[in-house]
Design brief:
1 helix, globular, mainly beta, Thrombin, subunit H, 88 residues
């Protein structure tokens, strides 16, 4: 899953979503936003008909990517993420 990461301040950048759960996700990226950076992740998830906007906060970094915790999600976003958890 490809995402456009839009920080509250600074330039947007691309990342690839991995290890997604209802609570958060790991994003592969050359960028390394600081702990606590607020982002909006914009992307088309399987099962969605349009790009979703997922609020998130960076919780950890490692070489090649970073982990985020999702903020308050709506019913549609929660449903799409929970359906992803069912896929093998």
């Amino acid at each position: 899953m490809s995402f456009r990461c839009e920080p509250k301040t600074g330039a947007a950048f691309s990342a690839k979503g991995k290890d997604v759960s209802v609570g958060g996700m790991f994003l592969e990226s050359a960028e390394s936003p600081a702990f606590g950076t607020e982002l909006t992740l914009v992307g088309l998830l399987p099962g969605a008909k349009k790009d979703l906007r997922l609020p998130a906060v960076v919780r950890w970094n490692k070489p090649g990517g970073f982990g985020v915790q999702f903020g308050l999600l709506g019913a549609l976003e929660t449903h799409v993420l929970s359906e992803l958890m069912k896929e093998p």
